[in-house]
Amino acid sequence: MKDVARLAGVSTSTVSHVINQNRYVSESVTSRVKSAIEQLNYAPSALARSLKMNRTNTIGMLLTASNNPFYAEVVRGVERSCYELGYSLILCNTEGDFKRMDHSLETLLQKRVDGLLIMCTEAQGPSKAVFSRYPSVPTVMMDWSPFESAGDIIQDNSFLGGEIATRHLIDAGFTRIACIAGPQDKSPAQARYQGFLQAMKAASLNIHEEYIIFSDFEFSGGFDSMNKLLALPNPPDAIFAGNDAMAVGAYQAIYQKGMKVPDDISIIGYDDIALSSYMIPPLTTVHQPKDELGQQAVNQLIYRMDNPDAEPSVLVLTPKLVERQSVRKR
């Protein structure tokens, strides 16, 4: 920067103002500075700037990704929001491994990220020793957080979503309704299942034990669970799948048995992933606002970075029914 200032015949602070556009500089001076920058092939040092400003304009995100497109769609919303607000995103996938989660968290904190977004499914949280070395890093938990945190939480109202999905099947005239629920050590899966139970009880419908299957939120889990339901002496005539990935797996199991959705069996999913509208027939589902989840998480994290003493908050997003053609009226 000193070389640029010397060549342009200005002060280093003027060069800084031109680069950062944080103060008015005349067009002629700006032109000289930009010309000097071009001649010297100068590139500002993000590291030097972060040391001076004590902020890296970088956000770290720790998540458990899988074949489920839900994660990719949430990350897309996070990345877009970061870009629009001038932040870079460093993404670490734990792949469900506790040791890898700890290592990834340590890596993000060592890189001095300004804040953390955490969306993990591990039953055990990160080592307290890691957080204790970086006590002031703002954190926002997204959707499902298996461990306690002093940070903010942004989540979907999964209980209401489970009720909405089940009520839709009941209103369509179904009584033999099965639930392919997600893993019950995950709070959204548990809440969706409880919403299912609440809707069934409110309608005074029997909840058959053999119609309840706990799976893993993956395509293969839905496929295996649907095969178990179809093998029953008296299979259900409607299914609430705890997420769209399992609903897609259920479609495949039904197809392989020579049956059709919704002629032989109706299905409703949860999440409204992009794939759901391209299924045959298109999948009726509960829309989870994934882009909004990502946007709100980034906005809340930046607010937390600017207001470290603000009280932690819990923001709950409202799901809504998306009717397509996988549920027929009886």
From TrEMBL:
Signal peptide: none annotated. The keyword Lipid biosynthesis does not apply. The keyword Protein transport does not apply. It comes from the Bacteria. InterPro entries: HTH_LacI, LacI/GalR-like_sensor, Lambda_DNA-bd_dom_sf, Peripla_BP_I, PurR_sensor_dom. Keywords: DNA-binding, Repressor, Transcription, Transcription regulation. Residues 1-53 form the HTH lacI-type domain. It holds the Pfam family Peripla_BP_3. PANTHER family: LACI-RELATED TRANSCRIPTIONAL REPRESSOR, RIBOSE OPERON REPRESSOR. This is Ribose operon repressor. The gene is rbsR.
